[in-house]
Specification:
Lysozyme; 3 strands; three-stranded antiparallel β-sheet
């Protein structure tokens, strides 16, 4: 009987050692698997980031092509290749910086000047209104906007340069979007002037939407172009 008891204790001890050994191997394997999983998670995160960056680059490239072709469509050869490339770069950079659809900016160009860089606005009486260029900006407004970012605009000839006109015109439009918080009111203010829109909003009068609707129609037209 005593011999049997000793064998049972020995067997139990061996079994216990084997269990601890197996547990140690399991823990070691578990840690190794956790490390592999963490490495895979890091790689997946990096890959996801790279895919998102590629997607963004793809969108930026498509936007650049859209801007260039839309400018070509609107200007009908009235812009030189150098001017078109410069404007494409400008509008592309602005649209990225302010998270703005570049074709909406070009829809304003389409509505204001039909893509004519030498356009001069007229009032209903036929007299010149003072609005000039692609985005039909007045010299006084251009001087104020240009002063904010060190762009010198002194004469009408300066404002008739497409790259200056689009820069100050877009800056003015972006400022109006920031002021009103939406494209609709900003576009109406671009057409009527922000003082007039402020008075109507304060008095509760409905804003006229005809200009806004024309711009949106031009935008939809540009969107339908084959790029």
């Amino acid at each position: 009987m005593k011999s049997n008891v000793r064998i049972s204790k020995l067997t139990f001890a061996i079994a216990l050692v084997l269990c601890f050994g197996a547990l140690g191997l399991f823990v070691s394997h578990w840690h190794a698997r956790q490390a592999e999983i963490q490495q895979l998670a890091v790689k997946e995160s990096i890959l996801r980031g790279e895919l998102e960056q590629l997607s963004a680059w793809g969108k930026w490239t498509i936007d650049y092509v859209k801007i260039s072709r839309a400018l070509d469509y609107l200007s009908k050869g009235r812009l030189t290749e150098e001017q078109r490339e410069m404007l494409t770069e400008q509008i592309w950079q602005i649209s990225r910086s302010y998270a703005t659809d570049p074709l909406l900016i070009l829809a304003v160009v389409a509505q204001e000047s039909h893509g004519n860089p030498n356009a001069r606005g007229r009032m209903q009486s036929g007299a010149y209104s003072g609005a000039l260029g692609l985005m039909q900006i007045k010299l006084e407004t251009a001087k104020k906007m240009g002063a904010h970012f060190g762009l010198s605009v002194e004469t009408e000839e300066d404002l008739l340069r497409p790259e200056i006109n689009v820069t100050v015109g877009t800056a003015y439009l972006i400022r109006l979007i920031s002021k009103y918080g939406n494209w609709k009111d900003a576009l109406i203010a671009y057409n009527l002037g922000h003082s007039a829109v402020d008075r109507m909003l304060q008095s509760g009068k409905p804003l006229p939407t005809k200009y806004y609707e024309h711009v949106i129609s031009k935008y939809q037209n540009l969107m339908s172009l084959e790029f």
